[in-house]
Amino acid sequence: AASAAETIRFAVTDVEGLEALQTEFGPFRDKLSALTGYDVEFFPVNSRTAAVEALSSEHIDFVLTGPAEYVVFKSRTDAKVVVGWQRPDYFAQIVVMADGPIKTVEDLRGKKVSFGSVGSTSQHLGPAQALADMGLVYNKDYAPQIISRNVAVEAMIRGDLQAVGMNFGHLNIIRKAFPDHAFTVVARGRDLPNDILIAGKHVSAEMFDKIRTTFIEHGKDLMAQVVKGDDNKKYLGGHFLATIEDKDYNYVRSMYSTIGVDKFNSFVGN
Amino acid sequence: MSESTATRSRPVEPGIPEASGVECNFIPGPVVTEVPADRPATVCAVDRLVLRFGGRGSPAILKGVSLVIADGEAVAVLGSNGAGKSTLLRCLPRLLEPSEGSVSLLGEDVMSLRRAGLRRLRSRIGFVFQRHNLSTRLSVLSNVIHGAHGRAGALRACHQALAPQELREEAMDCLAQVSLTDLAGRRADQLSGGQSQRVAIARALMQRPEIMIADEPVASLDPSSAEEVMDLFARLMRERGITLIFTSHHLKHALAYGDRVVALKAGLVVEDKPTARLREQDLDWIYDSNDRT
Amino acid sequence: MSESTATRSRPVEPGIPEASGVECNFIPGPVVTEVPADRPATVCAVDRLVLRFGGRGSPAILKGVSLVIADGEAVAVLGSNGAGKSTLLRCLPRLLEPSEGSVSLLGEDVMSLRRAGLRRLRSRIGFVFQRHNLSTRLSVLSNVIHGAHGRAGALRACHQALAPQELREEAMDCLAQVSLTDLAGRRADQLSGGQSQRVAIARALMQRPEIMIADEPVASLDPSSAEEVMDLFARLMRERGITLIFTSHHLKHALAYGDRVVALKAGLVVEDKPTARLREQDLDWIYDSNDRT
Amino acid sequence: MTATTGPDHGVPHRMGKITPLAFALTVGAAAFVLVSFNHVGLSWEKILGGGPGLARLVSQMFPPDLSRLTPVLVSLLETFQMAVVGTVLGIAFSLPLAVMASAKHAPHPLLRIGFRGLIAFFRTVPDLIWALVFVIAVGLGPAAGTLAIMIDTIGFCARFFAEAMEEADDGPQEALTAMGAGRTGILFSAVYPQVIPSFIATGLFALEKATRSSVVLGLVGAGGIGIELKVAMDFFSYDLACMIIISIFILVLMVEQASGWLRARVL
Amino acid sequence: MTATTGPDHGVPHRMGKITPLAFALTVGAAAFVLVSFNHVGLSWEKILGGGPGLARLVSQMFPPDLSRLTPVLVSLLETFQMAVVGTVLGIAFSLPLAVMASAKHAPHPLLRIGFRGLIAFFRTVPDLIWALVFVIAVGLGPAAGTLAIMIDTIGFCARFFAEAMEEADDGPQEALTAMGAGRTGILFSAVYPQVIPSFIATGLFALEKATRSSVVLGLVGAGGIGIELKVAMDFFSYDLACMIIISIFILVLMVEQASGWLRARVL
Ligand SMILES: Nc1ncnc2c1ncn2[C@@H]1O[C@H](COP(=O)(O)OP(=O)(O)OP(=O)(O)O)[C@@H](O)[C@H]1O
Ligand SMILES: Nc1ncnc2c1ncn2[C@@H]1O[C@H](COP(=O)(O)OP(=O)(O)OP(=O)(O)O)[C@@H](O)[C@H]1O
Ligand SMILES: [Mg+2]
Ligand SMILES: [Mg+2]
User: Fold this and answer.
1) Could you list the residue ranges forming a coiled coil in this record (chains D, E) (predicted)?
2) Structural domain tally of chain E?
3) Among residues E61, E86, E116, which one ends one of the domains?
4) Best CA proximity match to B49, nearest among B14, B85, B4
5) DSSP β-bridge partners for residue C62
6) What phi, psi does A211 have (nearest 5°)?
7) CA dihedral A187, A188, A190, A192 (to 10 degrees)
8) Residue E164 has pLDDT above 80, yes or no
9) How far is CA A180 from CA A159, A175, A183, B269, D56, in A?
10) Which of D2, D7, D16 has the CB atom closest to C169's CB atom?
11) Which of A233, C58, C189, C227 could pair covalently with C136 via S-S, beta carbons 3.0-4.6 A apart?
12) Chain E contacts of D129, Cβ < 8 Å?
């Protein structure tokens, strides 16, 4: 089914730092609607898998998503890139207890490292790549575990595991939540590629252009709606980028290889 | 009473007259209607019936019971506790699946009937259970209306609130026959033992049965109610020509209301006699036994 | 039988002798043991008992029943269906909470007893329910052993597999008294009506009761078993000095085994007389009523 | 009816008859449980000794953060609405499925096995797959969420309905059979009246469960309180999470209350 | 006992007595359900029409990927072991809790309310929080997972046990009371024998549920088949996911079979 002329269906999946958007998307939606003239149906989706399937079965027109998700989208549906969203301080890191025995990445050999969420760019792929870049082979030199961030931090405080992979924003939150404990970073990855807005291949060229222009011209206004809450001011400062190239994401593709998943690399050569 | 067969009455139509309205106020005494031609003279024939609970190895409860009951007869089945009376009665409409032998009821071979045929046959047979077997969370009236399941269909007969007015009134008439109209709205688990037994009887009446099978129908009734119920059965036999098969531990009832006595002992028929000239003490021996269980 | 009070026997010890072993083979006839001094002459006193199911507004089922029963007496409670016999019996050990009035049993004020006291009192009273109330998924033997709950504790009396050998044997003796030993291992839901009633009686015997309250204890029994059970009760009265309160719809039983007849009608005592010179027809009027329900 | 004496009149065996197979299976199961306990390595010392950490956790949760009360309640109401619809639909499908899956009432044993399997299948296939299926079928949003809840409810209710019907007392059913009632008649007149309290308990539990575990709604972009809770946890806002949990708890208690009240009327 | 005639001997009302409150509540509830249906916006056209998409999904799942069969089965066995331990513990705690929470058997109505609340609390607090609690208490690993399963089981079993006990027939209980049996005696002799089939069904369902929804184990770093499945889904290995689901399905069917077999023995 082609999308109706008046309505665009817009999903947001697991964009790191956009959690707030998932719960209070009202202002953002209204703004987008006002700027484009379309009715906007908005779906915060918890599952990458569901979003991909929705896009490929044409129930969804646009998805705003993270780099890892983009690679998957790209490999499974013929999606078009609308704009990229560049955010400052978007990188992965390996966090350990400051007063613990781990002082360098080398100390992590044979230890347990936890990643927050399977396949997430900044919690799984990014940190694993950071370690790989410093010579630790995934699942060989250390024992990776997928444990939710809340639990992982408690476990690290107890000493049950030695390091947690997360992004910069997460660490700030955690430092605030655990004022009695000191955390330190032993490894830091490259800045991660941009989050990205993609359109299903069924979206008309007219609608595609309209949305693209709106995001480029009014990116700041839209962003302002996202971060209306006082707590989220720190996400300010993002830019919407018009020129995104697929090869920018080869770094992410290599991350998949790092953790032993090769199936999304098929598009690298395209 | 086998001599009184001449006075048996039959409804004119194959069906049984509406029990509601004035018609149900039966006037005792001979009625001139005739037995319909299609009614067989033998309404129940049991042939070498064997029943086991459980498989081959388990002991037989009925060990080869044979029995022929004529149309309009009243048969009292006697026997000590555990002799197999209830088991025999439950085999007749195939509520229990006999291990061997055959049963025919109202001219149909019960063993060979398929689902629908069996249902149709069963709906013509009233059954009063020793344990009453009421749906305890429903009202007395609903329970009685259940008797109409065979003819009215599942939805109309499943609850008094859904039943058509005729059924509700007919059910009230049936309750009236056991003097229980004022408890029609009561939940069936809030009855005394005797009241619950009477509901079970009213439910069987609601079926407008051609055969009434009653397992100790008056065991919980007070003496005068017991007699009224037995009289009611007798009247139904006279007026509607139904056949009555009942068990009882009251020899007096058995002799007064049965045309014939069939005595079971440990799963075998040990006596099968007209009641005409029997006295109570002639039957005492049925209960003498050390292997009663 | 109120005249026969002189021949009542008492166990020598406050407890009741072990029912197992040879001792339980009671020899009928006068026994020379004496009533213990602490046994009150009045074992049961009911005073203006009112009972309603439901709250204030609902109709009273018992409308002010008063009754005094002497030690060792056998009282037959009569009444038509729904008169309130079962309700009255269930009020005695406070299985139902009376709305007004008082009950005292074995010298204790039932209404003012707390949990533990009530339990202790109840364990001295055998109760045979009209509906038997067996635990149907357990074996007959386990059901009988339940009778020992009052003295043996929850775990030892809850299942035959856990009970000490003495209890198991005592239970077999109780089953023997109702001729049911060969069904001891049978599940209680696979019994005939009369067998299940006898299990209920055996369970009450297992309590070694001082008072036996029996609600139509022989309604499902065949005539000879019924007499044996009533004889058993009579013997227990003679030999262990128990008091018997029973209901029955058999006037013959009531007159033969009761010292006294108490008749209820619609929740009121309408007759309270020694049976000495009563005949059956003297009692027929109890059942004459249009407002039986 | 004379009392036989002595201990030798055949007291039944304490254990009844046990077949070798049953014995072997029982021993095997017991051994497996023991091995598993060992494998898991629970110990009391372990369990006691988390005191200070727990105290910190609790102190992070209290006092609950009431600042987002209104959006949380709105989200809870929406979730509850979807739960109601999904559960109602699920129960509606469960009733006939349960009949088909019940040992006593299925028209044929093979049918019964088939339907048991189908119901188990509904349960076993995880929410995420159902979410995919419904997203593909009806797109993102409440409709897909409701259908996912419906499937969950069927997998749960149909099984428990079937089991309740198997446990129903045979007496009334036998009576209805004797009267020539058909399958439906027996169900409506003898089975359902008996199992209705159990149906109410199961049904309202399903409703409550759907509300509580509304994470599935998040999977299909239908929002719901589950997402709110997840976000609160992701931000380590334990005080907000606590408030959300308390709101859900109150709703759960209300549903329990309704269940108790309805059951008291029919029990 | 003469038959009174005519239609005028007081046929009871069709609907019985309905209090205004009950009526208002019923209408209110019905209205809420309708509004909710409307809100959710289900429609038949929507539901039909996902055909091609679903076909694609299914084609991606079949044939199941058998290459990782052994690790998956090992993981399933481990999960099942933890599930067994957690469920056994949970059931053990549920038995006394259920007594306390049952309307008929609680020593005091206030106690009953308290315990009902406690059980509902166990259910309402999400797995993630329990995971935190147990990781703080006993550290990462199977022990914490087992405890989390135990809590889940209590929240489920204790409630259904309590409800089954409330539904048990009063007769045997009255008989035991009359014999002077205490609370425990009544429970063991009259209540438990009646509800045992229902306990078996509930308990084995809990076991199966714990195995199926073993994601909680992943939360506490205890691994489990749940994580395997999640990873497979997250990496779009639908064929692997399908294989995992089939393995779980077979286990579920086996547990169902065991449940049916045990119940047949006591029913
Ligand atoms: N489900 C069952 N499984 C095994 N045996 C059973 C079952 N039901 C009944 N029996 C046995 O079958 C025999 C006959 O039982 P039945 O109920 O027919 O006796 P009855 O003649 O009606 O006795 P009563 O006068 O006590 O009602 C009894 O010994 C009883 O124990
Ligand atoms: N739970 C209840 N709620 C309301 N009324 C009840 C309840 N139980 C019994 N009754 C009514 O109380 C009255 C007395 O009942 P009870 O069982 O004491 O009669 P009974 O004298 O034992 O009769 P039967 O000879 O039939 O056993 C009956 O009219 C009955 O309908
Ligand atoms: Mg019988
Ligand atoms: Mg009574």
Assistant:
1) none
2) 2
3) E61
4) B85
5) C51
6) -65, -45
7) 130
8) yes
9) 15, 9, 10, 91, 10
10) D7
11) C189
12) 233, 241, 245
